[in-house]
User: Fold this.
Amino acid sequence: MKKTDNQMLIIFGASGDLTARKLIPALFALFQDKDLPENYVILGTSRSDLSDDDFRNRVALESAYMENEDQEKLRTFSEKIFYQSIDGYDSNYNDLKERINKLNTSFATDGNYIFYLSTPPSVYKTISQRLSEADLSNQSEGWRRLIVEKPFGYDLKTAQTLNKDLLEFFEEDQIYRIDHYLGKETVQNLLVTRFSNSVFEPLWNRNYIQHIEVTNAESLGVEKRGGYYDKSGALRDMFQNHLLQVVSLVAMEPPVKATSVEIRNEKVKVLKAMRIMNDEKTLFENTMRGQYRPSEIEGQKVKGYREEDGVDPESLTETFAAIKFYIDNWRWKGVPFYVRTAKRMPTKVTEVVIHFKSTPHSLFVGADKDNKLIIRIHPDEGIMMKFGVKVPGQGFIVEEANMDFYYSDIAINGVMNAYERLLLDAMQGDATLYARGDEVEAAWRFVDPILNYWQGTKAPMYGYAAGVWGPEHSDDLIEGNYFWRNPGPNLADDPGYCVLC
Ligand code: BG6
Assistant:
């Protein structure tokens, strides 16, 4: 097991929801698993005027997210939690620095600090600058790291500016851009499935693969995040970051070593090789957007997107995005990739489907089906191969059979959730599962023309009733005699299965 240095985590924007909902529960889980170092301190900071006890109660002892935890252990853990208010993110950080120094001396955290920015991105630059002015980014007396939450930029230009701004005050290897999909075990398993088995890799290319499909569906709508979502949309919220990260893992070349530099070098090459769509005809033919409309699901009325709180009643923000694209490199030349993401679909599911080419010459009735490898990221995590078998009896009639593996069969001690895994990696200085600046920019470079096209008036916006698999014509995006696989919550469910809840 890797060693974790003594250290302090300083959370900016600590009075916000993320700290109580994700960060503290993840840190408590690490504490219970004895993954925190011997000397460890959590210091929350924000503009709210709170005492240490107020903050402990809010995020741990009286937090609704911690109700079911062992209260005795939670009290012991809470002794490591402190709070220091600041006048504003753009103030001087003298008091904060003094508090950090004192805690560092009292708890022997060896001058190692992680600054976690859980604030609006508009203040990322200011905070980094103020930290640097307070000499808190300087690594002469302990290491210093900066974790930044998504969204990382609003488009290519803002992402480039943000990268440049952060790099003025921190080095690239100090910056950890979080993408919680990379913290998911099943996403990491994409690498292991591909590169620890000799059976898949020889087939993993344009010679044997017909097309690749990635679906990310959510059954919920925008809930209480209408204000944020209306300025973002499905393409920015899910596709540019989480789904392109998944694509890069599916499509990358084998790295020379399993290190953060080598793995991220290969991922960025994939993102850079994605064919950018610039003309309107190509954008029209290869992209599709939609928005959910009011509907009734299991007898319950469900609001349409435009009726959600915080959403403009005339909004043209997409809640469904489907993109067909190509990766122009030796391995993938000519293989279409189809990626879709949407809110208010029949079920919550994320999966990758590798469609292999059909046999070159069909001998048997029903043997024209393609072999499929389905990699389930969530839920019912696992992998399933669909292949043809003979129907017992006279003649040679072929039917599809399943060969499957379920992740739950091997995860004996429980799987770390994404935030636990990512926080522990940052504590240990491993940035493999964080996005690098050039990856983020390459992803935006591909997404920007689509955003621009969608902002214009020419791109159609299709409506779909909340609770169905997107716009009626979404299968038209797929070439040839193929359709989206519309899966159910269980890996083995076949398309057509529909859960309206
Ligand atoms: C977030 C998006 O990054 O990911 C949300 O902002 C989305 O809109 C969420 O619901 C999905 O994450 P998961 O892990 O539930 O698939």
Summary: The longest strand covers residues 209-217. Residues 496-501 have pLDDT under 50 and may be disordered. The pocket of 6-O-phosphono-beta-D-glucopyranose is lined by residues 218, 237, 350 (CB under 6 Å). The domain at 7-149 is CATH 3.40.50.720 (Rossmann fold).
